[in-house]
Amino acid sequence: MTPYTIRLTKEAAKDVALLPPRLKDKLRIILLQQVAPNPRCGQRLVGDLAGFFSLRLTYKDRLVYSIDADSRTVFVHRARTHYGD
């Protein structure tokens, strides 16, 4: 089975630009080795973010994404903290 395509939203692209190089590398590995082959590997979110998935990047930073199964695309919406820092 072919892996899903990964797309960053403008917000996620801004988040990634602010990450230090070490975390950018970690993010790339997570996206290519975990999310692309199996996008439902993350934790399913509830409430306002129902329909989205989350994976931990660091203790406070999370990757938030959604899945378009028809086009086999994962849309990354956030790649930083959601704690207001």
Provide tags for this entry:
globular; 85 residues; alpha+beta; YaeB-like fold; 5-stranded mixed sheet; 2 helices
Radius of gyration of CA atoms, rounded to a whole number: 12 Å
Oligomer: single chain
The CATH fourth-level homologous superfamily: RelE-like
Structural class: alpha+beta
The main pleated sheet reads as: 5 strands, mixed
- Shape type: globular
* CATH class term: Alpha Beta
Give a count of the beta strands, DSSP E runs of length 2 or more.
5
**SS element count, helices:** 2
In which range does the helix fraction lie? 25-40%
CATH fold-level name: YaeB-like fold
Strand order, sheet with most strands: 1-5-4-3-2
* CATH architecture grouping: 2-Layer Sandwich
What is the ordering of alpha helices and beta strands?
A: EHHEEEE
The unreliable regions are none
